[in-house]
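subagent[fold] <- orchestrator: predict structure for attached chain, return tokens only, no commentary.
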Amino acid sequence: MSEKVFELKEAWKTIFIFLAIVTIMSTIFHYAIVNLYPSSIYIGALMWCPAIAAIITLKFKGRSISSLNWDWGNWEYIRLSYFVPAFYVLITYILIWLFGFGGLPNAEQILEWANELGLVGIGALSPTVCVIVGIILIGTVGVIRAMATTLGEEIGWRGFFIYELRKVLSFTGVSLFSGIVWASWHWPLIVYYGGNIALELTTFLIVIISMSFIMTYYTFKANSLWPAVIFHAVSNVYIQKIFPALTSKIEGSEHWLGEYGIMFAVVTFLFGIYFWRKAKKEKL
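subagent[fold] -> orchestrator:
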């Protein structure tokens, strides 16, 4: 057996071990989230399963945890990993507002948001100031808080998994394979908590694979897992916490809104295509 074939076989074995451990561990916490309370505790634990699986796999293969790409990386990619997801969520909601799938918030809605953030006085005096302060607070403190859980996912998915896949697949293959695995890892929760399950599974698959292309690009360019940690946290915060709170729902158009919405899938898909072409052009 040639050395190259041996290396490929070892890489696939490592990938299989990692995925097996992730599956076993995640199944336990998927069950806990559905059947036990408070579920938020188990969601946090679930998000750390990929990291723990990566660490166990490294130990099993006799490799050091320090072999993961812990360096901060180029600041350019750190900055872009904040602004790109914030930008694509902004575009998503501008299109939602323009096409009438959702409305801009009214003063009462902003005041309710201010109450939740403890900004009652500011919100009562000026809804505009309340929105600005709210976005700044959630977009900074909220993102840092979200990074505590996205770090668990990204140590596993982007810190370890895609680098193993890179040994056996092209950039396109790495992004597709890791995206499908990452999306399917979420599916049990969508099946249990979702409304229009078929639609949500489809849109979420598109979103996650598209994000996978972007995050794989930044991870490989920076040779660091931190851009993916930040990117993931920012995307979650803006699509889950900020823009939904600033959008009035219009009956009958709910399937266009949020992280499972059609509009988000369309926008992220276009971004994914752009980064796929960019990576191919750069021979990444």
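orchestrator: received. Logging for downstream: The chain has a mean pLDDT of 91. Residues 204 and 260 are 6 Å apart (CA to CA).
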